[in-house]
Amino acid sequence: MCGICGIFNKTGYATERDELKRMCDVMVHRGPDDEGYYTSSHVGLGMRRLKIIDLETGHQPIHNEDESIWVVLNGEIYNYRELRTGLEEKGHTFYTRSDTEVIVHLYEDHGEEFLEKLNGMFGLAIWDARTDRLIIARDRLGVKQLYYYEDDKRIVFGSEIKTILALPGISREIDYEALSDYFSLQYIPASRTIYHHIRKLPAACSLTIDKGRPVIRKYWTLNYDDIKLTGRDAIDTIDRELQRAIKWQMISDVPLGAYLSGGIDSSLLVAIMSTVSTRPVETFSIIWDTESNAFDERSYSRFVVEKYGTNHHEFLVKPEPEDVMEKIVRGFDEPFADDSAIPNYYIARETRKYVTVALSGLGGDEMSAGYERYLGMKLLKHYRLLPEKLRAVLVNIIHSIPDSNTGSPWVERMKRFARITDSPFAESYFAMSSKIDTAGKPSLFTLEAREKMGLDYSTAYIFYALAAECTSPDELNQMLYIDMNTYMVDQLLVLSDRMSMAHSLELRVPYLDHCLVECFARIDPSMKLHGFVKKYLLKKVAEKYFPESFIYRKKMGFSSPIVLWLRKDLKSYMLAILNKKSIEKTGILNPDTVLRYVHEHLERKHNHDTKLWSIMMFMLWYNTYIDKVYDM
User: Partner of 466 at 20 to 30 A CA spacing, among 194, 205, 219, 351?
Assistant: First the structure.
């Protein structure tokens, strides 16, 4: 695991090593073990390295035999041993034992199609001095991120936005459509970032820079057209492919373990790791030290520990989020409001004290339909089959519930449901996925900000485009495809990367092995959402490893008790940030709306935790990256 960066100077002047070092210095956390640079004519590559494979000879950048091709890699290539064997048989000579070196030789043989040979998580850059060509690329599922900036003189790229911002002359102009996306979803979907002139390279894409303008090419798309597997064939296929993916991702020359929340995904992961490991698996869990036990799954994680004999580390965390908030904000470089960043930050910090690599169960929900919103859309489909008069009666009943009772999240969901009963599929799913109801969202902004966003702009356009792009006519598969290309890649994977790498911990995600993901796409949708049983397929796989009483229980999720904190532990912190003077200074948020949310939440008239957390994280980002608007 590393951080990479680079500069392509269009005007032909030489890239200075000092520029690359400035970029690398702000991401030492991604690679505290080593640094490396390559400069030639108008191109420069830089990297910080966290040593995982080939601890002695894996120094980057790495080159081919005649030093005409150079590469820097962030991530891991899991099939590098098989690839190396084939390349050596063709006559290629290797000078390291690293996974990185296979890339330059694959490129020599296959050109830009080399990406299709790789199984791994990666952000990489290749400089081909023979053709004066620079290629940057991202893995198929987008586990690793890459950002780029272009102006008249140069193209700059890096593993994090901060590497680009480290250079002088980089514009921080806000992209207001991206800001609108953020307040709908709590994250910003690719290819936008909050900065108008900085872009995310989308997952499964390469960007080629040569004599012409940069060209983006998508080299992989998930296809649902193959024959659908069902029944025992589906269960056995996923079990077999999951075992393979986990075994491949356990390759490491440094200590390795796994996150264990006690949920189905992480428990199944640990069970399979235990069957292929020759020693007890190192497992890691956190427990919140709070009055409520609503977020405590320790009984389930301990069951897994006892059943599979893991070497378990359980961390009791006292909620002091104000101590880590600024570090979390600096980890993302743009507004990002998933409150599970807090538990992810803590578990990565504690896990790193014992291992350098950890495996995570992330991705199981998106591959096998584990979220409540999939049920919501199924209910909506059944609702539309009811007689029109009955539908009207039900909607009127829901709308008649007094606002004073909407402190309940279920009432809020019902009211949102009632507003989308006649909406098209993509619009309905966007509403189900949005964190802030679009009906009240405009009042959050000043008129000037709304005009800059574009009064007609809606994040729902992204959902429409992805639904149309999906090769399956089935609505569940379309939802999974949308989530894979938005929520998973731009929220969950960004979160896991930033919070783990903040502590120099490599986090791997076997459920997102692209061959396994392709198998999930071949499974009949009824095996994913079976009646009203979410994640049915993975639960059936888990029956091989766990009793049914353990499997078929209510999902909790890896989150923080933020609704409680905003009324207690974080109340004073929230009030210090969300004051009228500071809000007005941004010129973006409407202070009357924000202060109404604060008052109603503290008075328990409404549950505004998601809105308030999104606003707080925006204010923290604005104060850190744009202009100081408050003093703590």
Answer: 194
